[in-house]
Design brief:
Length: about 450
């Protein structure tokens, strides 16, 4: 199965590789900094940023709003409500939420600078919103991927399930002839992808049988029984890893995060926080590591709702490195901030951009911690450009929940784990299909 038949009518394959580094959510493309920006010239020819977004908003405030000076303090009005922010240009401080959170120059400080520039008679820069970097969708390839997704999904899933060994049976002469394990996984994952009920999904399985993907159509209750098999968990994790391997040449920067998926079971909120008797849906936590360009999931772990995030950082990073991915950068929020986690990334040849907690201090005993802490303290603008790639993990979770649902319908922990893993595998196959059309990548699963 080659992607050569999916070529765009407007661009060559080489141009498409340079043109499409953001496969799904184009609002997060600016998270991939200089290296990704340099590859986007074919579609962003007018991208000549002369002013940052905060400078542009500060210029608008200086031109359109009344700024009052009280000694060394300037009272700068908000652009969205009636709030007034106290700005000290000499101490480079402001009372707005952005400055308090990031300790970086905000639009109100820029507004005061432009006001002083205006008062001294110097010309103000001309606002040019057209200079803001934009990212176009390549609709020809995107439409092809969406139109053919269901058919290609079955082809890729069938190819992944071909080499799965069947489960041993104690007595081959007793009991019904069950489906091979590979066909069980095919039925189970395809069911999660379809979002249909078990009964309404049977017609899709009959069509899959007609195409030769399965030997026979199982009963709809059998599909739910497949989710209860403990052996499915390791098989699904391995298939998730295999489905990410075709993008090894594309993904070098990664993000780690976790998110909850609600279940049909209930937990009393009184057990979570004191004093309230309301009933809440229970949930499980899904920990994953994903590429920031294509949002492909390279490794995943499942835990209970009360599990901490930091202990899962090591198995996620080790699994991704063991798969053959080149770890250039790894981003994560402050829940993963620890010296062992930073050292782990450097051991695999990468640079850790993990946010520091408020009480963090420099430590000469750990060189990588000391190095990254001083980079964070002295060059926050540069540090946040790399750390901001972590937002792509949130985009990955958003894609999974929006397309395959944020609710786990299974009842037991084993079936809930397997169902969540099925959602991740469905997401990876959809990422591959998009890559086939937009990047010209051949998954090559043996078809």
């Amino acid at each position: 199965m080659r992607a050569s038949s999916f070529k765009s009518k407007r661009e060559s394959p080489a141009e498409r590789v340079n043109a499409q580094l953001d496969l799904f959510n184009h609002s997060v493309c600016d998270h991939t900094v200089a290296d990704a920006i340099s590859l986007c010239r074919t579609r962003c020819r007018k991208a000549r940023r002369t002013m940052q977004a905060r400078q542009l908003r500060g210029l608008e405030i200086a031109i359109n709003s009344e700024i009052i000076r009280e000694g060394n303090i300037w009272l700068v009005p908000s652009q969205t409500d009636s709030k007034i922010y106290r700005t000290d240009l000499f101490l480079n401080m402001c009372t707005c939420a952005y400055f308090e959170a990031h300790k970086l120059k905000c639009k109100h400080l820029y507004a005061v600078e432009f006001l002083l520039q205006k008062e001294t008679g110097l010309p103000l820069p001309v606002p040019d919103r057209e200079s803001r970097e934009t990212f176009k969708q390549v609709w020809h390839e995107y439409n092809l991927a969406q139109v053919n997704e269901k058919a290609k999904f079955q082809e890729l899933l069938y190819a992944l399930c071909q080499n799965i060994e069947d489960l041993p049976r104690k007595n081959i002469h007793v009991g019904r002839n069950r489906l091979p394990l590979g066909e069980m996984i095919f039925c189970m994952v395809f069911k999660v992808y379809s979002l249909f009920s078990g009964r309404r999904f049977i017609s899709d399985l009959k069509e899959a049988q007609r195409r030769g993907y399965i030997s026979r159509t199982p009963h709809f209750n059998s599909i739910f029984n497949y989710l209860e098999l403990p052996q499915m968990t390791d098989c699904l994790k391995q298939l998730i890893v295999e489905s990410s391997l075709p993008l090894k040449s594309v993904e070098t920067d990664f993000a780690v995060d976790s998110s909850g998926f609600s279940t049909g079971q209930f937990v009393r909120w009184f057990d979570v926080k004191y004093g309230n008797t309301e009933d809440w849906h229970d949930w499980i936590k899904l920990h994953l590591m994903c590429g920031v360009r294509t949002h492909i999931v390279t490794s995943v772990e499942i835990s209970g709702r009360s599990a901490n995030d930091s202990p899962y950082f090591k198995p996620l990073v080790n699994a991704t490195a063991a798969s053959g991915f080149n770890l250039h950068e790894v981003s994560a929020d402050k829940a993963y901030s620890s010296r062992p986690n930073l050292r782990l990334v450097t051991q695999h040849g990468g640079t850790p951009y993990i946010a520091f907690k408020d009480n963090a201090r420099g430590d000469s005993k750990c060189k990588v911690w000391n190095k990254m802490f001083h980079l964070y303290s002295l060059h926050q603008e540069e540090y946040l450009k790399h750390y901001h790639k972590r937002s792509n993990s949130e985009s990955t979770f958003s894609m999974i929940k929006a397309k395959f649902g944020e609710r786990i319908k299974s009842k037991t922990m084993i079936s809930q784990t397997n169902e969540a893993l099925c959602k991740i595998l469905c997401h990876n196959l959809c990422c591959l299909i998009q890559s086939m059309y937009e990047l010209g990548i051949d998954p090559d699963f043996g078809l």
